[in-house]
Every structure is written in C-alpha cells, then in structure tokens.
Amino acid sequence: MTGNGANSIELLRFGQMSSRPRSAAKRSRIIDIAMHHFAENGYHAARVGDMAAALGIAKGSIFQHFGSKDGLFFEVYKRAVRSFPKYLDAPAEVRSVGFFQVLQYWLVRTEHLLREDWIPYRISLLGNYGTDLALKREINRFLMAEDPYGTVAFVRFGLERSELRDDMDVEMIVSILDWTIERFQDALLTAELDPGLFRRQGELPEKKEARIQQFLSILQRAIGAADPVSVRPHPALRKVSGGNAAAKARG
After folding, report:
1. What's residue 9's pLDDT?
2. Using CA atoms, how far apart are residues 121 and 187, in angstroms rounded to an integer?
3. Is 139 inside a domain boundary?
4. Last residue of a domain, one of 18, 37, 67
5. Main-chain dihedrals φ then ψ at residue 107, nearest 5 degrees
6. Helices (H), 147-204
7. How far apart are CA 101 and CA 234, in angstroms?
8. For residue 79, is it within any domain?
9. For 125-134, which contacts have Cβ atoms below 8 Å and span 24 or more sequence positions?
10. Mean pLDDT of all residues in 5-32
11. What is the DSSP letter of 246?
12. What mean pLDDT value characterizes the chain?
C-alpha cells in the first residue's frame, strides 16, 4: 500500500472517531428539546417538525438519529426515569430505620415533582398512560431489564433486614411495589393538582400524611414480616414535610 493510501485510511478513521462525539452531542440536544415538547404538549400533540425548528435542523435529521417519533420518545422516557433517584438513595439515617421508613421518606417527598421535577415526571406519566401498546411494551421491557428505580435491590434490603415476608416470591414483591407505589404517588399528585378529586374542601396536609400512613399500613400487612414494627415518622421526614422535598421513588 502506498503512503498516500495509508494516510487516506487514517484520515477516514480519524473522521469517523471525531464525528461520534458530535453525533452523541446532537442526539443529546435533540432529547433535551424533545423532553420539553413532549412534557408541554403530550405525546400525540408534540410535533417532530416543531422540535427540529427549535433546534435549527431538518426534521429528517431527527428521524435519522431515532428512526421514528416512537423511537425518540422512548429515548426521552429512558432519560426521564433514569433521572429519578433509586429507593436506596434515601439518606443513611432513614435507611438505618428500615424498609418501610424508606418508602415513607419517598412518599412524603412526592409533591416535589410538581415543583422542580415536573418535566421528567410528565414524561414518565406519558410513557405509562399516554402511549400506544407497541411503545408501552418497549417501555415495560426497559423497566424490567434495567430496573431504574432499584426496586430489586430495595426488596433484597428489606429481606436481609427480615422486614419482608420470606414466603413470597421476590419478583412478586417487586411487582407489588411497582404497581402500588407508582399509582399511589400519582394519586397524591392528582390531589395536589385537583384538590377536589379526593375532597370537595381540598386536601389538608394532615389528611395527606394520614393517607400515606394508611397506605403503608396496608402494604405492610401484605408484604411485611409476620410481626412488623409500626411505621412511625422518622425525624428526617419531619424536615421534609415543610416542602423541601427531593425526588420521586417511582416513575
């Protein structure tokens, strides 16, 4: 091979390598813009053309990177749920008290989603309730494969502490948490958005706290060990109730 030929190959390889960071950066910018468009307009009303216009690129460029609107939303959904903390990201002092206190910690902090994390939360809602079955299947596969909230590790944490039933399949306990925590947090946020949904007079803070305690009591009877310790507010939770919340446990 001549020297010029070798140099041409090296230049081609260099060009391919240098283009990869630019391509990754472009994908990331597209996802950033798409998150806002999907969150503000919903899945069906969001327009890929509008996203392209906001980015100053051709609409076809977005499809080149993601294949379709579904493909784009799927990447947006994955980024959104990965931004939420895992169960065991609760402070060490809360984890030391126990499994159900960790759950309580995150449930009390749910309303933070409306204040600072509303975009990823809206995306998670759209993925869970506002997409067609084909895309929903892909989302479910992702959730099962990646376990972005660390539910499996959290259940093992509870089992190691002998706080959970040892006569139930681990996957069953994981599924119960996935089903119930997500729906209950959605209900808490719905009450915040529309106080008349639960009570015509609105939802008082003490009523919301009582509802959380009732929910945890029911859950504890379902998956807790035979002689559970009652769940009482940890001192760290009292600081949270003033509104300095951090993030959602489930998406």
Report:
1. 52
2. 13
3. yes
4. 67
5. -65, -40
6. 151-160, 170-193
7. 7
8. no
9. 125/186, 126/38, 126/39, 126/42, 126/43, 126/73, 126/77, 127/73, 127/77, 127/80, 127/81, 127/251, 128/182, 128/251, 130/42, 130/43, 130/44, 131/43, 131/70, 131/73, 134/70
10. 66
11. -
12. 81
- Tell me if 34 sits within 8 A of 72, measured CB to CB: yes
d(CA 154, CA 86): 9
Question: Model-level pTM greater than 0.90?
Answer: no
- Percent of the chain exceeding pLDDT 70 equals 74
State the chain's maximal CA–CA distance in angstroms.
84
Report which residue type is found at 216: L
CATH of the domain at 202: 1.10.357
Q: What is the CB neighbour count within 10 angstroms for residue 121?
A: 25
User: Is 159 contained in some domain?
Assistant: yes
Mean pLDDT lowest among 18-27, 195-204, 205-214 = 195-204
**pLDDT band at 10; cut points 50, 70, 90:** low
Do 134 and 202 lie in one domain? The reply is yes
Q: Is the confidence at residue 203, as pLDDT, over 60?
A: no
What is the domain extent for residue 9? 3-67
Q: Strand (E) positions, 109-239?
A: none
Looking at residue 249, the DSSP 8-state letter turns out to be S
Instruction: Assign residue 25 the CATH number of its domain.
Output: 1.10.10.60
Domain boundary among 15, 37, 67: 67
Question: pLDDT tens for residues 34-43?
Answer: 999 999 999 9
Same domain, 141 and 220: yes
Give the SS3 label for residue 147.
Answer: coil
Kindly state whether residue 134 falls inside one of the protein's structural domains: yes
